[in-house]
Each structure stands twice: as structure tokens, then as C-alpha cells.
Amino acid sequence: xxxxxxxxxxxxxxxxxxxxxxxxxxxxxxxxxxxxxxxxxxxxxxxxxxxxxxxxxxxxxxxxxxxxxxxxxxxxxxxxxxxxxxxxxxxxxxxxxxxxxxxxxxxxxxxxxxxxxxxxxxxxxxxxxxxxxxxxxxxxxxxxxxxxxxxxxxxxxxxxxxxxxxxxxxxxxxxxxxxxxxxxxxxxxxxxxxxxxxxxxxxxxxxxxxxxxxxxxxxxxxxxxxxxxxxxxxxxxxxxxxxxxxxxxxxxxxxxxxxxxxxxxxxxxxxxxxxxxxxxxxxxxxxxxxxxxxxxxxxxxxxxxxxxxxxxxxxxxxxxxxxxxxxxxxxxxxxxxxxxxxxxxxxxxxxxxxxxxxxx
Length: 360
What we know:
- The protein has eleven helices and eleven strands.
- Strands 1, 2, 3, 4, 5, 6, 9, 10 and 11 form a nine-stranded mixed beta sheet that branches.
């Protein structure tokens, strides 16, 4: 029995179509939206609240937290909003939960000067500056893990954490190493960040180009008895609550505008977790290869062929799981068309339509 969860990062637009990022929206404005959304005690203990209490609901403000010299939170620069589902026993249930919470969020934004959009990289900026520079407490705090050290990078990026776990996965660390190895040929199915600095940047995933390698492709959470693997970026982390033990997070996909694509990708990850034929393993992502793939994605014949091998291996491993195989068939159809969300975004932009705050 597999268990699934989705964490989905959303960018925001102003009502006039401008992109609303850390330069244009305050934490208080977004927290006011979250305050109006329901809090369900049944979400816990499956979801983590966090050290500073911002993550009290399935919706929360995602951003970069700043602290004073004693470690007290003084502000949070927001990049957008995140929705996370509780853990579900099927892909369909996780996707349905995400859709329902998206609808609740959109209803909460109705009448406000904000609306959600999905794109995987801030289309109008090229960098997030940490201002003022980190103080001594923050510098020590940000050295706690490779992910803390590089947390400023995520201020420009939007993507999901697709979570899966199962008692039948004997070695989740091995699965995470497999997914890390094959990540360059998985991520093109999701590419949705063809803009940077106010214009097309020349590739399909600015997020992958900047992020993967400096930050993980996959993580696995281990209990206190599990041996942590030292690496930069991390492959393993200590579980922060019992529900996390054994959870594998794939973190390298771009944000997807249609939750159905998350379902298809979760089925692909399930097949790869069950597969016993693929031999590639890596502890850290191949950053150079990710940067190369980020430009052409499935338009590159070699990348397209390698992704096809993964789809075939996953389909073989999903024998006896018809719902997963149906979702994988839909994903294969996208692969055959060499389709990803970025190609549709670029087509709209070329046609003169507004896209995430940009217009040609």
C-alpha cells in the first residue's frame, strides 16, 4: 500500500495582471488570506507546523524568514503561497484533495487584489537579494544543512514536493538515489519556467537551470536509527515527525498548472520505486546535466529517448495496478508529443497573450 502527498507552490498576480512577488506583496497581506481559510485538527499529526508556527494549515505563506540576533522571527519575505495535502492512500485522493484546496484558496482570494498563477520561476526577476546581510545568528542557522544554506534560491522558484512511501519499499534510500540519478530525464515532463528577467530566457526550465544540483532532486526522511548519508545537497534528513519516517520526496519537478499531471508523475515515481531493472544511482544530482536538459527538454532526441526508457520501465513495474498504468499512458501521450507546460506558455506569449505578468 503506497501513501501519497503533494506540496504545491503557487505564484501570485495582482488583479491588473502584474506579477506579485516579494517586492510587491507583504507577508501580512498573504497571511490575512490564510487566516480566512479553515484549520482542520485532523490534518495533524500528519503535517508539520514548523519551528515558527507559520505552517499551521494546509495553506501557508512560503518565503524567506529573517531573525534577530537572538533567533526571534522578525519578518518573512513572501514569494507566494503553498498548499500541502495530508497523506492519502491513493494518487486520486491526493490529487482530489489538492484540487479542493485550490478551489478554497481561489474563493478566499475572490474580491482581493490577488489571484493565483502557476509558473516555476519568477518571470520578471533574475535574483533575490538577502537584505540586510545575515546577522551572526542567521549565519549560524543557515549553516545547519545544505538546504538552509541555499534557501535564498527557492525565492525565485515554484515547484512541488511529490511524496510517496510504502511499507513494501525495503530501502527508501536506494529509491531516492535511483530517482536522483534519473532526475534529468524525469523533469522535462514538467518544465514550466521559460521566462526570466521579463522575457524568454532561451530554455524551458529556468528553475532546473538554477536550482537542481545546488538543491536536492530527491530526499528521504529516516528515523533516529537510520544512518544519515552526508552529502551536499542532502539525500537524507532526520524525520521531524513520525508520519515522515520512510517518506521519499521528489523535489525537482517544475510547478504544474494541471493537478492531473502531478497524478501522472506520482504514478511514474511509483513505477520507478517498484522497478528492479534500472541500475543507475547517484547521491547528489548531476548539476551540469540538469542545466543542459533545462534548455531543450524533450525536444532533444537523446533526452526524449531516455525519458521513454523510464516510462517503459515504470509501466512494466506497475503490472496489476490499472489506475497507475492509465495515468502513465496519459503521461506517455504527453511524452510522444514532446509536450510540457513550458511549450504552451511560450505559445501563448508568442501569440501576444498575457502569461504570468508578461506580455510580448
